[in-house]
Amino acid sequence: MLQGCVGVHWVVAGVILQFVAGCGGSGVGGVGEANVASGGAGTGPTAVSVAADSVESGKPAYPIVRYVAVPQLSRDLAIFDSVFWEPDDTLSLRQKIAADPQLRGAAVLEVGTGSGLVSLCCLQAGAGRVVATDLNPAAVENARENARLLGFGDRLEVRRVPRRSPGAWTVLRPDETFDLIISNPPWEDQRPETVEQFALYDPGFELLESLVTGARQRLRPGGRMWLAYGCVTAIRQIQKVAERERLECRLLDERRLEELPDLFLPGLLIELAVPAGG
Is 1 domain-assigned? Predict the structure, then answer.
């Protein structure tokens, strides 16, 4: 999801997920993720500078609230204050990334990077270059810091999306295209009131609509879009918009939508592609 951490409860498959303001993550750990005791890049032409105290100075621009271990990565990730952390959201997505040979040398875009977890998994799997975007300024700096820690700072470009124009493609140049576009967007059809709430709410599924309707313009020939959603209502909306846009839409999961609660974890992976011949 886009990043944030707010006072809200979800009931998912009978389990209460609690997000607390300023916590830097949820109280539910991901499968295979372990919490570790807390320790004390260039931008594109449309990126926005978000902090005077940059990571290049050696001091993170925002407080680090925890370090977390992720199996796919060679060292722990830092999680900044106000940056949403729920690794179960992207479990199936990260497994797919690790196993996909087409990622080698690929140009990748991640919409809503947060801590940078998914983008860094793409780079670990051999992606040539990743552009990552986020609306939360703390998340932008968080992803840059984690790229620096993992030695990927020269291959990850993080751009801040302006709050007043939060579409999927706002900070891209008109001619920018990618082999793979990835997003784990917010799932709930409610209106956010704060930057942090953009992690959870997509009013009218506007971001969803933006992602799917823009796929043709932004994907290179043979390219793919992977979306991770844990909401049946949102997934059915993706299928509807994809059909309207004449896109191939596949659910890369053995679970059946009709057997799932409306909100669930881990998120389900959807693949969109432009059919051969257009």
Answer: no
